[in-house]
Automatic annotation (TrEMBL):
Keyword Lyase annotated: yes
GO-annotated molecular function: ATP binding; D-serine ammonia-lyase activity; L-serine ammonia-lyase activity; magnesium ion binding; pyridoxal phosphate binding; serine racemase activity; threonine racemase activity
Ranges where the Tryptophan synthase beta chain-like PALP domain occurs: 25-314
GO biological process: D-serine biosynthetic process
Family in the record: Belongs to the serine/threonine dehydratase family.
Name of the protein in its database record: Pyridoxal-phosphate dependent enzyme
Highest classification ranks of the organism: Bacteria, Pseudomonadati, Bacteroidota, Cytophagia, Cytophagales
Key words, A-Z: Lyase, Pyridoxal phosphate
Length: 324
């Protein structure tokens, strides 16, 4: 899929639009803490600043983009209801955002979504429709839901209002770390967080490079990064259920312009990194969240002696199905 330049779009997240997004969502999100751990620093050979979005509203960074996108709609559009498709965290974000503005949410979720995420979505009052877990089935089912309800679709990642909202996590990380960061690491699925993180670093901390972690079992972004067009993963099989989708025509150009590299990790490396954070930091994170830390551990020499920010993206893990 060929790409055209997108930064001429009036909705493209500029420094001003990201600042406006931050002000817009501030009453509805947490300014999450940054935690450090000397044991993990020694293990990694770097000084790590963990931005704990697992403590965010709905248990994940997705609250930022979902709330910004819904609050950016006109009152008339909000009143129609909001629809989306998501394996869980964006679903919860839209359900939460819809409850903030007093409208209905219609969520398409894969039929193998973690039960903890399905229950949370329903807990915000959303209507859930299940589908087979492929991008194509998600799209088809969503089209049916929108046709039936008239709801406005908010894309999980390929939406500039969503990207601007996600950018606020890295903006806070840069502001609150207390030291200049050489690198920020974030996971990549559809690229909403990664492109937002890259733009936030570009505007608010231009000396900071942004690097992504991606599961080997969903390695589309690393291919897209090399070929400069949207690619699909050669195969999809990973524990990181939040990172299964491929990039969009809004996220990939930002990533090509502002991301330094994408590093892949195995499920074994993801599980080991996840376990370390549970054991050493005493906090709950989900597998997708552990991917950037796994990438750092795999490539320690690359980050040796650096001050590194890592966005811990979420903690919505099914406690009955831990991989340890």
């Amino acid at each position: 899929m060929a790409l055209s330049p997108t930064n001429q779009d009036p909705l493209y997240p500029t420094e001003r639009l990201i600042e406006a997004a931050h002000a817009r969502i501030r009453p509805y999100i947490h300014r999450t803490p940054i935690l450090t751990c000397q044991t993990l620093d020694k293990l990694a050979g770097a000084e790590i600043y963990f931005k704990c979005e697992n403590f965010q509203k709905i248990g994940a960074f997705k609250a930022r983009g979902g709330v910004n996108a819904v609050l950016s709609l006109t009152p008339a559009d909000q009143a129609q209801g909001i629809a989306t498709h998501s394996s869980g965290n964006h679903a919860q974000a839209i359900a939460y955002a819809a409850s903030v503005v007093g409208t209905k949410a219609y969520i398409v979720m894969p039929d193998n979504s973690p039960e903890v995420k399905v229950n949370a979505v329903r807990g915000y009052g959303a209507e859930v429709t299940f589908c087979t877990n492929t991008p194509e089935e998600r799209e088809l089912t969503l089209q049916d839901v929108v046709a039936r309800t008239g709801a406005v679709f908010v894309h999980p990642f390929n939406d500039y209002a969503v990207i601007a909202g996600q950018a606020t996590a890295a903006k806070e990380l840069v502001e609150d770390a207390g030291v200049p960061l050489q690198t920020i690491l974030a996971p990549v699925g559809g690229g909403g967080l990664l492109s937002g993180t890259a733009l936030a670093a570009h505007y608010f901390s231009p000396q900071t490079q942004v690097i992504a972690g991606e599961p080997e079992g969903a390695a589309d972004a690393v291919l897209s990064f090399r070929t400069r067009q949207i690619e699909k993963a050669p195969y999809v099989k990973t524990i990181a259920d939040g990172l299964l989708t491929y990039l969009g025509d809004k996220t990939l150009p930002v990533i090509l312009d502002h991301v330094t590299d994408i590093l892949t990790v195995t499920d074994e490396e993801i599980i080991a990194a996840m376990r370390l954070i549970w054991e050493r930091m005493k906090i709950v994170i989900e597998p997708s969240c552990a991917v950037p830390f796994a990438a750092l551990l795999k490539h320690k020499e690359r980050f040796s002696g650096q001050k590194v920010g890592i966005i811990l993206t979420g903690g919505n893990v099914d406690l009955g199905k831990l991989p340890f």
